[in-house]
Amino acid sequence: MGVVALNSPNMSFQLLDLDGVAEYLHLTRxxxxxxxxDQEIPFIRRGGRIVFNKEEIDGWxxxxxxxxxxxxxxxxxxxxxxxTKNFLPHEAILPDMLAAGIIDxxxxxxxxxxxxxxxxxxxxxxxxxxxxxALIASLEARETLCSTAMPGGxxxxxxxxxxxxxxxxxxLVVGRPVQEIHFGATDGEPxxxxxxxxxxxxxxxxxTLARLCLLALKTDILAQLRAAPDAGTMRNSLIAAEAEVLAxxxxxA
Length: 253
Known about the structure:
This protein has 10 helices and 9 strands. It is an alpha+beta fold. It has 2 domains: 3-67, Multidrug-efflux Transporter Regulator, Chain: A, Domain 2 (Orthogonal Bundle); 83-249, Mannitol-specific EII, Chain A (3-Layer(aba) Sandwich), CATH 3.40.930. Strand 1 (3-6) and strand 2 (14-16) form a beta hairpin.
């Protein structure tokens, strides 16, 4: 990846060049240049060069993934799957991430702000979260950019930029509040299901986001999760839905 500068050990302060951001976003250099020309992507002019603040790119990338439709999402997911093969032990990511996380099928959250606090409290019980206050602040900053709620009753809260120092390992927290919460979905409907993404690696973060969006689009997992009687059933349903999507991607496997 083309890194121009690193002003801090925190990955959020990286500056990427055109080739670096194209690789990171699974776009061609020409596609990035067109988005710069159209002012569709955040960038900085430094002398005669175009560079990109990685924290801003992370926010832009997550918003883009949440808004991708059928074929563009398929294409992005295929590319992110290929790019993560060199460090993931297998294509299925949910068994490991859910094993390290926690699922609460009866969260008591009643408001937009309380659901973020309650998700972080769940993450804290895993013993894998190092800085709960920093995570809450990052989640709130990300929601300020635009809501992570999607049509269909799903929200995917995540830090504004992946931070390897927030977590001891990557995991997911899943919450299903007893009360529906208006979380800013574009369809105006309330949200019933929340997935908190806790990823150490930036590539895994975007890949997990794409994988969950694909499950919501390609399977009936949201209906299954709403109807599931307990956390164990919810976990099994998620793992089965991921296996279904992967089988369609690799029919000969």
